[in-house]
Specification:
The protein has about 80 residues and is α+β, with helices and mostly antiparallel strands. The chain contains 1 helix and 4 strands; from the N terminus they run E-E-E-E-H.
C-alpha cells in the first residue's frame, strides 16, 4: 500500500475565548501561509482569529489535526 503524499496546509478559523479548546474552522488553504495572517491576531467578541500550518495528505486531515491540536491544554493560543 502506498502512502499519500503529504503537503503543508494553513488552517484558519476562530477560537472560542470562553472554551479555549473550541475551534471553528473557516477554511483550509494549501501552502505554508500562516505568517501572512498576522492580522488575524486581532480579536472578535468572545473569539480570537487563528491560523496555523499542518502537514497532511489532504485538507480534511489538516482540519482534523487543527481540532486535535486545540483539544490539548493551552496549545491553541498564540
Amino acid at each position: 500500500m502506498q502512502k499519500a503524499a503529504v503537503q503543508t496546509f494553513t488552517v484558519i478559523g476562530l477560537r472560542s475565548d470562553v472554551d479555549m479548546s473550541d475551534l471553528f474552522i473557516a477554511g483550509v488553504i494549501p501552502g505554508p501561509v500562516a505568517d501572512e495572517f498576522v492580522i488575524l491576531k486581532t480579536s472578535e467578541e468572545e473569539f480570537t482569529r487563528w491560523a496555523m500550518e499542518f502537514d497532511a495528505p489532504d485538507a480534511d486531515s489538516a482540519a482534523d489535526q487543527a481540532y486535535a491540536y486545540c483539544q490539548e491544554e493551552d496549545t491553541c493560543s498564540w
